[in-house]
Amino acid sequence: METNRTDKTILFKGVKLLAFALLSLFMGPILMTLALSDKENSLYIPLLIVATLICVMAVFLIFKGIKTIMSSMFKKK
After folding, report:
1. Are the CB atoms for 32 and 51 separated by under 8 Å?
2. pTM given for the model
3. How far apart, in whole angstroms, are the C-alpha atoms of residue 72 and residue 9?
């Protein structure tokens, strides 16, 4: 009888994705606050676009990281 075991390399990839998501979760709103605090600045629009993209990337990385961790635990061979 074969038991399902967690694939540790895939698990670490998922944890690494969640670590990058955590960094993005802090960096995106900080940049967005900086962009929205000074609307007369010439870098207002580019900084706002970059901050929005980082926030979207954080959400994507969270879902991808959780999916990777789940596939490492419940993978069918």
Report:
1. yes
2. 0.84
3. 8
Distance CA(7)–CA(48), nearest Å, equals 39
Question: What are the phi and psi torsion angles at 73 (to 5°)?
Answer: -85, -40
What pLDDT does residue 76 have? 57
CA–CA dist 77, 32 (Å, integer): 44
11 to 18, 22, 56, 73: CA distances (angstroms): 11, 17, 23, 8
Separation between Cα atoms, residue 8 and residue 73, nearest integer Å: 9
Q: Are 62 and 46 in contact (CB under 8 A)?
A: no
Please give the DSSP secondary-structure letter assigned to residue 42.
T
